[in-house]
Design a protein that fits this description.
homodimer, 8-stranded parallel β-sheet, 3-stranded antiparallel β-sheet, 18 strands, 18% strand
Amino acid sequence: MFFEVTARADAARRGRINTPHGAVETPVFMPVGTQASVKGVPQEVLEELGAQILLGNTYHLYLRPGVETVRRLGGLHRFMSWRRALLTDSGGFQVWSLSQMRKLSEEGIEFRSHLDGSLHSFTPESATAAQIALGADIIMAFDECTEYPADRARARKSMELTVRWAERCKKRLQESMVDGRWSMGKAGALAHEVIGGDSTAIGHRPSTIDDSQALFGIVQGGMYPDLRKECAERLVELDLPGYAIGGLSVGEPRELTRDIVAATLQHLPAGKPRYLMGVGTPEEIVEYAALGVDMMDCVHPTRAARHGLLFTSEGKVNIKGARYAEDEGPLDPNCGCRVCARYSRAYLRHLFAASELLAQVLNTVHNLAYYLDTMGRVRHSIELGGFTSFLSGLRSRSLNSPAHTQREDPTKAPPGRKA
Amino acid sequence: MFFEVTARADAARRGRINTPHGAVETPVFMPVGTQASVKGVPQEVLEELGAQILLGNTYHLYLRPGVETVRRLGGLHRFMSWRRALLTDSGGFQVWSLSQMRKLSEEGIEFRSHLDGSLHSFTPESATAAQIALGADIIMAFDECTEYPADRARARKSMELTVRWAERCKKRLQESMVDGRWSMGKAGALAHEVIGGDSTAIGHRPSTIDDSQALFGIVQGGMYPDLRKECAERLVELDLPGYAIGGLSVGEPRELTRDIVAATLQHLPAGKPRYLMGVGTPEEIVEYAALGVDMMDCVHPTRAARHGLLFTSEGKVNIKGARYAEDEGPLDPNCGCRVCARYSRAYLRHLFAASELLAQVLNTVHNLAYYLDTMGRVRHSIELGGFTSFLSGLRSRSLNSPAHTQREDPTKAPPGRKA
């Protein structure tokens, strides 16, 4: 993996992450495909929408279909027929969210499957090995997500464990290489045949560490800026190819999220990608890009879509509303997605009211289009040097939009990392 | 509507139904879009699959979103953004299937909504008016489906009611025309502007009865060939543009279905389309085409898909089977659909096992492709005069396929008209 910054606008950066499965233009929003599928959307439609990189979850894939199954089938790219970049979350957050079903020690976490209650454990080593077998381009360190609220002593203890675990993840990744190549069976065997960053060959492993799976560290430290600083500095010493900010969107007020993001970013190296995990609303992802975040993911667009909450250039639309029953207009007149190009609000409202499967499919396609297009406009604005005016336009529209201010988000869960 | 037979192979016919929304090549399989949506499949994908005509249900659309709403929005074609042909079922069968919630009289049927228990009634006149407002190219007479088993007296009484109701439907349709044009508000207003059978304009009404909505009669008569004959002859006297065979797939043995179909077909006019309602399996739709049926519909491919039962050229595949967990092959090596072109059996099995929404979407797309391609091959075989060898090949494959004979259909409901 190689990262380059190509333009700046104040703190915001326009960049490119070159992965073994193609370039990812940043800032980037990454749709969440927890179980090797972005819920309801075929991969060919994700390509059409311009998705550059998808997220998978090690915890879910470990339980089903199983890491060894994916490895034998040539890795996650090949398994799900996705030729572009992939990132896997380590499973740390997912196991943490099981709360009643886990037991933490220095060694790792014992947990019970949410599917059948069976007993399992993840260690930094096993979570890393699982991600090596899955073969995503970017893999995440196994961390302990600090709960909110947490006092300083608890946050420090948790942060220090996360740092020690990151070291063990890095060590495990290094051990998996033999002569600069991955040693991982079938998928690894392809490494000797296919070299190059933009190949569409699936399951290939590149020949040098710079081109191979990139391990990102995750900064924890609760809501304490000095602990965040210390965590960042200690992880930077590990010289990892990228860094994430974790432990946010866990119930804290949004202003606090923003403060901690800003406080943490300044301690992360400018030359490496910065990934803010599990955010946010369309307004938030623009704000975080303005702060200098390069990568974001969130279940919000896909989950909200399934609940009928749609994002448009004119504000939020709760499509189940009776006001749309005879609205012949497109969902978003400024959107070029296949949904807005063909279907009316009245039809989308009917599909949702009638609990038709197609409602979930079309709603998800549009919301992803909105998020991906938003980030595309952010990238364009940074390139043209107009990001400041883009931001202020967005803020005033967001404040003035009646559609935005008069409606409640019908989804029960707040935006966040996928549990 | 204009029907022409272009080729024959024994009893089988190759034909073309020219509707105000384009030609329908027959024999044709019509995917079921009960609530103005084929479950989980966007209209652009149905186009790609080659669907020529979809089915909608008056009962469901009457309850939700309401017939007046669809009419105000320009008719069903425009509402659901489907430019090709549409057929609506009259609601007779759906109301009949409510069993405990209906009351029958000479006038019509009182029923309670399955959604909220509210009281409604359909008469031949109101069901026809509803279908005029929906604006489908082919509309169905309001019939009484005879239950199975039914003794001869009961079947006769029911059949005679169906004939009287068909007369009333025809009368109601004729009354809706003013100077040879529909009088139906907004959608009707377009009739004066757009003329022509292949227009992509939506909601248009043609200028003559031959080009306008075609009312099909439905032959009832239970499992009594002589009553079927009498019903057919009395409906033929009404000189309707097409005839359907109803009251089958209601629990009777499959051989009996076939016998009644064959016994009825011989009394229907050769120059008009013959529609067998609510069948069947892939093998059955070929058999019925061989008997001379021109149109068929069934929820089987879409419902079975949602239960993980997939039809392939190598037999049935129950995709949840563990045997497919590491099967890298396509679902059907002889299928060119977007699912078979991209995804493995292992991935489809994972999606289904993990209850992913995408499983239902992809499975449905493939099963529809299989049905539509099967009917495409039937048409081609009739044209080339090789339908007999096509049929015998199909029968031997069907008998020899281990995939077919070793597995049970996991769907609980038998193939049938959508209730």
